[in-house]
Design goal:
six-stranded mixed beta sheet; AAA+_ATPase; ABC_transporter-like_CS; binds adenosine-5'-triphosphate; ATP-binding; single chain; disordered C terminus; 243 residues; alpha/beta
Length: 243
Amino acid sequence: MNPDHDPLLEVTDLHAYLGDSHILQGVRLTVPRHRVTVLLGRNGVGKTTTMRAVLGLVRRTGRVVFAGDEIGQEETHDIVRRGIGYVPEDRDVFHGLTVGENLRIAERRGGRPRYDLVYELFPELKNRTKHLAGTLSGGQQQMLSLARGLLNDNDLLLIDEPTKGLAPVVVREVVDVLERTAGQTTVLMVEQNLAVARRLADHIAVMVDGAIVLNGPATRLADDDETVRAYLSVESAISGAGS
Ligand SMILES: Nc1ncnc2c1ncn2[C@@H]1O[C@H](COP(=O)(O)OP(=O)(O)OP(=O)(O)O)[C@@H](O)[C@H]1O
């Protein structure tokens, strides 16, 4: 079956609230299987909140269907157990723990952690299992954060702004790692760096003021400069992501 017609994740009429603010206002989004979908939009439009709403981390209403099951009312721990991993924006590694310990505490109970896969994808981490995570570079911390998401057998990874705040040379490294990650699982990713988005995305979703205004093949990014200018606070030529 065409994966675009059998999405892994399908969100309909999703509303979310932070305090008194109505942040997501009827989000509709599909994420095809085995693809990278990049969620784009200006600062503050609700991209992070969309991921957190899918995970049940914010108050929300609406329909969220994952692998054919409705999960819009479920608690976060049940959603995560279904095979959705989260790599948050701030990387969230424990600086005072070693690389190995950071991985160990990410193991899902009852699961079979995939250390072989993780160390094959991230040899730099294998050489540093006894190093404190706080001593790693920003790029290595991002790798550790991605490795934690891949350690469990997740079907979907939600990755929030993985290249944010990284130097151009490190961005390139992380993009390579993201490409390897995307070979393993379906990805929904927030990314503000347009060059990175263009390199990785098969599918895009563009968000404006708490709603999705465009959800389709990534070719729209390549040949539709008007879309880019109208909706995104990104520049179309950003060095550091490679070609
Ligand atoms: N605790 C909160 N209470 C009320 N409003 C909040 C709270 N946290 C965030 N917001 C607002 O919710 C909106 C959506 O935030 P969100 O982080 O989802 O946007 P984003 O598109 O991911 O932005 P960015 O690219 O800056 O990370 C923003 O306008 C933000 O100011």
